[in-house]
Design a protein that fits this description.
The protein has 149 residues and is mainly alpha-helical. The protein has 5 helices and 3 strands, in the order αβββαααα. It has a 3-stranded antiparallel beta sheet. The protein starts with a helix and ends with a helix.
């Protein structure tokens, strides 16, 4: 049995509201998220927040007092970058749950994926299609590298 347009709209709006509630919960969770990293020699631990801010920096020994400034700076920088990268990975994985949401909603509005499969060969024939896909992949990879410092 085929759904009427009004029923399709109603189902799509219900799905959208459900996703909005889920996104709001995830945003609140990520806003409060932190990540920590400890240096290999257990000298220092850094905790960073969701915006990359330093929440805390803890020295576990007094060994930093005898370190050269450059050596201490490298130890602190390394743990900060590791903690930021870990949190970035967590954010990316969490947000990955929403990947394809727009396509899903569009498909539900067109009654399924038949329209998408009909236009796919035409999109692939468009000049520069492969270049656009490669550029999109580079942008996704570059965004992830930003978290790695």
């Amino acid at each position: 049995m085929e759904l009427s347009f009004a029923e399709q709209i109603e189902q799509t709006m219900a799905a959208l509201e459900k996703q909005q509630a889920k996104m709001a919960a995830v945003a609140k969770e990520l806003e409060a998220a932190t990540a920590s990293a400890t240096s290999k020699d257990r000298l220092v631990t850094a905790v960073v927040g969701a915006q990359g801010q330093v929440v805390s920096l803890t020295f576990h020994t007094t060994g930093y007092r005898s370190m050269a400034p450059a050596e201490l700076a490298k130890a602190v920088t390394d743990v900060l970058n590791t903690a930021r990268a870990d949190l970035g990975d967590r954010v990316a994985a969490t947000m990955g749950e929403f990947q394809g949401l727009g396509e899903t909603l569009a498909a539900s509005m067109t009654g399924g994926t038949e329209l998408e499969s009909l236009f796919a060969p035409l999109r692939q024939m468009r000049p520069g299609f492969a270049d656009e896909e490669a550029a999109a992949e580079r942008r996704r990879r570059d965004r992830q590298e930003e978290f790695r410092g």
